[in-house]
Amino acid sequence: MYATGRNLPQLLGDARRWFEDALLAALEAAGEVHVSPTQAGLFAVLDEQGTTVSELARRMGVTRQTAHQAVHGLVAVGLLEQVPDPTSGRQRLIRRTAEGERTHREAELVLHRLEEVLADRIGPEATHALRAALEAPWGSPPALGPPKA
Q1: How far apart are CA 42 and CA 133, in angstroms?
Q2: Residue 61 gets which letter from DSSP?
Q3: Between 1.20.1050.10, 3.90.550.10, 1.10.10.10, 3.40.190.10, what CATH number should domain 8-125 receive?
Q4: Which pLDDT score, from 0 to 100, does residue 1 have?
Q5: What is the pLDDT at residue 115?
Q6: How confident is the model at residue 15, as a pLDDT?
Q7: Can you list the residues of the chain whose pLDDT is less than 70?
Q8: Whole-prediction pTM value?
Q9: How far apart are alpha carbons 12 and 80 in whole angstroms?
Q10: Do the Cβ atoms of 45 and 51 come closer than 8 Å?
Q11: What Gene3D superfamilies does the record tag this protein with (predicted)?
């Protein structure tokens, strides 16, 4: 059994929320536009040249409707814009506005500082090991059979 009784996906979710909560609080304290965790996650998976809503939804692991709502909220506050996709007459690309780029750079600086705080708290070696484990290729998810009793 694990020391906390919690499985690895639960612990990874807690770690993600630690970063997310601190990031959003720091951006709000700096006077940035309030964004939801879903909207912040959308920024993290957006390509520089733009990304379709369908692709954003896939990368975020949410429905197209959820991604679409997040996009519209960010368009409304001036952080994103929709532009025609040059490779498709029917699709539109979502990309950052100049203000969205500035906010994204600010968020990256905050995340870097948060990683430094984490290193102060758990040690630089543990932080480096955590990063290395998460950056290592894990391969495709395995196809496991039913659990054995």
Answers
A1: 24
A2: T
A3: 1.10.10.10
A4: 56
A5: 96
A6: 95
A7: 1-2
A8: 0.84
A9: 29
A10: yes
A11: Winged helix-like DNA-binding domain superfamily/Winged helix DNA-binding domain
